[in-house]
Amino acid sequence: MSMINxxxxxxxxxxPKGTTILQAARGNGIHVPSLCHLKDVHKYGTxxxxxxxxxxxxxxxxxxxxxxxxGMEIYTHSERVRKARKxxxxxxxxxxxxxxxxxLRNQDCELQALGRELAVQDDPYAGDEPYHGLxxxxxxxxxxxxxxxxxxxxxxxxxxxxxxxxxxxQNRGFDTKIAPVTGMKLGDTNCSFCGQCVAVCPTGALxxxxxxxxxxxxxxxxxxxxxxxxxxxxxxxxxCFGLEPGTIQTGRMVAALRQMGFYRVFDTNxxxxxxxxxxxxxxxxxxxxxLDGGEATLPMITSCSPGWVKFCExxxxxxxxxLSTCKSPHTMMGAVIKHYYAKKLGLKPEDMFVVSVMxxxxxxxxxxxxxxxxxxxxxxxxxxxxxxxxxxxxxxxxNFLNLPEEEFDNPLGQxxxxxxxxxxxxxxxxxxxxxxxxxxxxxxxxxxxxxxxPIVGLEEIKEATIKxxxxxxxxxxxxxxxxxxxxxxxxxxxxxxxxxxxxxxxxYHFIEVMGCPGGCITGGGQPRTFHINETRKARMEAIYRxxxxxxxxxxxxxxxxxxxxxxxxxxxxxxxxxxYLHTHYTKRGLFNEMTDExxxxxxx
Amino acid sequence: xxxxxxxxxxxxxxxxxxxxxxxxxxHIYFCAGAGCISxxxxxxxxxxxxxxxxxNLNSKVKMIETGCIGLCSLGPVMLVMPxxxxxxxxxxxxxxxxxxxxxxxxxxxxxxxxxxxKTKEYIPCIDDIPFYKDQVRIALQGCGTTEFDKxxxxxxxxxYATLHKAITEMTPQQVIDEVKxxxxxxxxxxxxxxxxxxxAGHDAVADQKYIVCNADEGDPGAFMDRSIIEGTPHKLIExxxxxxxxxxxxxxxxxxxxxYPIAVNxxxxxxxxxxxxxxxxxxxxxxxxxxxxxxxxxxxxxxxGEETSLMESxxxxxxxxRQKPPLPFQAGLFGKxxxxxxxxxxANIPYIIKHGAGGYTRFGRVGAHGTKxxxxxxxxxxxxxxxxxxxxxxxxxxxxxxxxLIGGKEFKAAQVGGPSGGCITAADIDVxxxxxxxxxxxxxxxxxxxxxxxxxxxxxxxxxxxxxxxxDESCGKCVACRIGTKRMLEILQRITKGEGKKDDIDRLLELxxxxxxxxMCGLGQTAPNxxxxxxxxxxxxxxxxxxxxxxxxxxxQALTVFxxxxxxxxxxxxxxxxxxxxxxxxxxxxxxxxxPLLCIGCGACYGSCPVDxxxxxxxxxx
Amino acid sequence: xxxSLENLTCNCDHGSTDAEKYAxxxxxxxxxxxxxxxxxxxxxxxxxxYGYLPLELQKFIxxxxxxxxxxxxxxxxxxxxxxxxxxxxxxxxxxxxTACYVRGAQKLVEALEEKLGxxxxxxxxxxxxxxxxxRCIGACGLAPAVMVDNDVHRxxxxxxxxxxLKQY
Lengths: 604, 622, 168
Prior knowledge:
The complex is a heterotrimer of chains A (604), B (622) and C (168). With 604 residues, chain A is an alpha/beta fold. Chain A has helices spanning 21-27, 79-94, 110-118, 153-161, 196-200, 212-220, 250-260, 268-291, 306-315, 329-345, 362-366, 386-395, 417-420, 427-441, 491-503, 532-548, 559-569, 575-580; strands at residues 3-8, 11-16, 51-54, 61-62, 73-75, 135-137, 141-144, 168-170, 177-179, 206-208, 224-229, 264-267, 300-301, 352-358, 373-374, 377-378, 382-385, 461-467, 482-489, 510-514. Chain A folds into two domains: 3-93, Roll (Ubiquitin-like (UB roll)), CATH 3.10.20.740; 213-580, Rossmann fold (3-Layer(aba) Sandwich), CATH 3.40.50.1780. In chain A, 33% of the residues lie in helices and 14% in strands. Chain B is an alpha/beta fold. Helix content of chain B is 40%, strand content 15%. Chain B contains 23 helices and 21 strands. In chain B, helix 17 (459-473) crosses helix 21. The longest helix of chain B is centred in the C-terminal third of the chain and has 19 residues, at 529-547. The radius of gyration of chain B is 26 Å and the shape is globular. Chain C folds into two domains: 5-78, no CATH class; 90-166, Glutaredoxin (3-Layer(aba) Sandwich). Chain C has helices at residues 5-8, 18-31, 39-50, 55-65, 69-78, 98-102, 105-116, 161-166, and strands at 90-95, 129-134, 146-148, 151-153. In chain C, strand 3 and strand 4 form a beta hairpin. In chain C, helix 2 (18-31) runs antiparallel to helix 3 and helix 4 (55-65) crosses helix 5 (69-78). Chain C is elongated. The chains are: A alpha/beta (604), B alpha/beta (622), C alpha+beta (168). Chains in contact: A-B, A-C, B-C. At the B-C interface, helix 12, strand 9 and helix 23 of B face helix 3, helix 5 and helix 6 of C.
């Protein structure tokens, strides 16, 4: 890497060629405040806060945008720069909704923190506010444009990273707002509700639609309130309490939930193992049918990620047959709790209240779908994001870091390592292969440590070919068959794979899609971070550690799952499963023109 | 249409057109510029045709519709050749008389010629009119004297011969060298040396390069580029192809604002003609070089005149600027090296290549050669389009070419450079109109808007007007411009309403400095200029508004009431009739009086008084 | 083929149906298929053909050009030339500046609303007029003033409105 020399604040600095002035400064330990810029995600230059003085340049330079050049002489905090930053900040707050004390982002707000850093003490430019003071609530995401500073991080995420393209700048000048199409509410659009926009919003303009009140209320009611937690939550919840990303906090999380008064603390991982049984069986059925020359839709695509499912329904409504009919693990769990576990306790399904703690905002919309009901009851009653759980633990006065480690309740608390890896991209596929390969060949998946190395990692699209050799007699017609698989995370990758499927050119038999880049570990409901790539990596490594630490690594080995089938469902893909664990999908179309279902929440 | 393959084809067309025109004794150059069109010149043209028939003049007189002749405030106008008699203020009613007198009776219809307001003399010959006398027309050459809708007419004036010369006798580098030596500077606002820009474009290595003509002229009151496109669209095309050849671009775009439908229409016709003759989309004159040109129409956003926004708009996006660097020659349109010049710049190119740099540097001054087109507007007698050598003192433009201020009023200042520029005061009226001289005074050449203002003008209100404009046109991308211009406008609005606060001037200076220093694009970086410049020269007016609640010019309605000087009033009752609020009382032939409580300061009476007896004065607070 | 606006001008008076207009717009989109970045040019043509750019038409364009609707709307709402509301052939601006107001501009607005059967901001059923109000147009001496397109009508009285409208 060739390096260039420049001086910053009189200090000789070196930086790799091609880096920005901001990177050069930070790389040399010199702090430059910034706001709209988000490392590895968004570089747009709208807020101008990171301006610096470059000797010889007419104007101040936006350091996040301008490339460092050999011999540059930069001052990051000259009087001219400090004055400009302060004025820019004052302009930014001059039309900002300043009810900070009752804002969800109070003390967790980048705009607020910047004001503190710049020591701004007055608001001299307060004036007209743009007319778009609108609060738009959908099942998953709440938009409050009075708090929007037009940094456009969400626009980049929604358009470039996720290619959902529902958020964009509308209107011009002072009237500019970030919105779906004029007059349309988010719940009416093709939004996938992945929440990646929420995860990057520096202020309270985009937030998840919180279910905290629903849960508090249920906890005070006569109902049996049961909570379950997704695999990705345990590797991130610690960040809400100042721990490093990737610190596994399963035991403390369980202890906290128990202290909060939940009747049972179950593990969504149990349902992940269940999902593998159901989804693996479904794949084997489709695969066998194709081998026999019958009709079955391949590639089969995973359906655990509701953001991805909605994306598919909106953008590829004619390809829904490719989706596995399995519900996502937490809704399976909800169905099992209400329609199996309740019976075991001698309770009625309506006596149960199921809360899912998820790294995800799309799951809030998922539980409102008509398909996620059985016998007139929703499978899940509330979805808390990891961030919301952190807030609730704090609101409950629990000193999280001092908690003892506790275990999940049984019988829906035990899981295998295969379930753990559901939390990261490539995990569902690997978990499925651990089981499916063994069913077809009678042998363990031939990869070191059971990790299918080609599909491990954070690349957008990963693929692998698994050759079936020395198969069991009943799978003889699969002998020598090369199963082609693909794994993607993030909806841009999903779009690429689906375009192949749509065109009939997809070479794959089985595809895993996760709606968020990296999978659930960096879902829209996870704690926010300024270092997305590093955080994602740390959480992923923790997930694999959790898997490797488990005595059982394959879903079909989970004794509680076996017991469940014996006790209730009979066999995977059987009648009970179809009634409660499988679902169907809704053709929606790009403008929801194919359905009447909407996800707008009317505020009273 | 026959294709043009070599210079003999060009000569043939030239000869044919000239001999066709030579059959007539007289030609009427009838101005069909947008200004005259809006004055109803179509009906006048129809009447002329009818008259020519009526008087049996069709074999003797040929009427040619041309682009803008320049004196827009006196339109519709026509120029009779070869005698060069110039008729102004034509209407369907009077033009018959003019035709009969001039062509049948052989007598110049003097009453319909230009009248010098000072000497009251009529000046029939266009060359004797002060408005034209000091002008040098290079970019405007042919504008008003060529049939705009015939490629043959352009070729007959030597058009496309320069292109032929460049392609067949010169290397691209030689073309660039010529432009460099001419020291032509960008005429759109920035004033960057065109040759240097082209060299960068030429040296950029890419599979595709673009050349773009910026015809998104948006400054209030400026219409230089429109005149060039409407009058000589082929000259623009030739200039662009020359630019394309020089930098190695095979594809060009003209980005033109939608508010110019006539210009769009004429230019697209011209492009079709050039294409039909093999000058576009085919190898030129037997060389390897071929060029295609496409029009892209804007959609009503001033910011698209800024080059990076313009590129975004051509690409079909919201016209939001990009951070520079990278500069367009590094990564421009569709990410490819792109050179962007404005219309007037391109219109100078054929002349420079034809006459050589030496022919061009005869005009202007060291460091800024050639001429500049200005749009004269405001309180000036001869409003219109002019072209003068760079460096001409502003006084010459205002007093001689412009004919002074309307009603003989006193000159107060001129806004130069539109909403990005600043004002030049009466004290500086002798400033040479040159890039650096204007910048030293806090103004800028800009695209060439020149708005003359009399002592009746309130400078705070003028600053408010420009800020209103810029704020409305801000794209909203960066904080500095989106909110900064809004807040500056709010402060100016309250000052002009008499609600200014003590520290408002400091606030404006502070905000202005930050917006200038931190905005992303040229629009934002120059937006505070009108404020900063008016505060620099007219701080006392700001203070009068803020501290005394008084508008010295009597223009800010909220601060002004009018009063009648009873000594001067002749009791004509005109003011009384015009007053919308019945504030004026008085009997015929007796001095009138205005009730200050009823007066809303609209100035209707002021404009109606024949004897100058009405004056603005400070509104006393209740 | 040259794609100037003129070639695409549709005389809406001949009563093309919506389906015909959409078909024309589809043709335009297809004609621009190979040209890069043609969204704005397509929107111009679509507005010329349809008169304005309602949401349904924006959806049609988005779908056929394979662009997100939010991007199409972002462009439409950025440029002042594009209108998402139907405009009449002529726009009437009643000046509501102080001078005009005290001389009865409000009465004019009411009279026009009654005569045209629309409220301010709306277009008449025959698509002939859009009724609007304006800030001071600087014609205080002519108050109350009404601007129809670019013509200023001076000292307009309610009983003179018929005569004024008849000119259009």
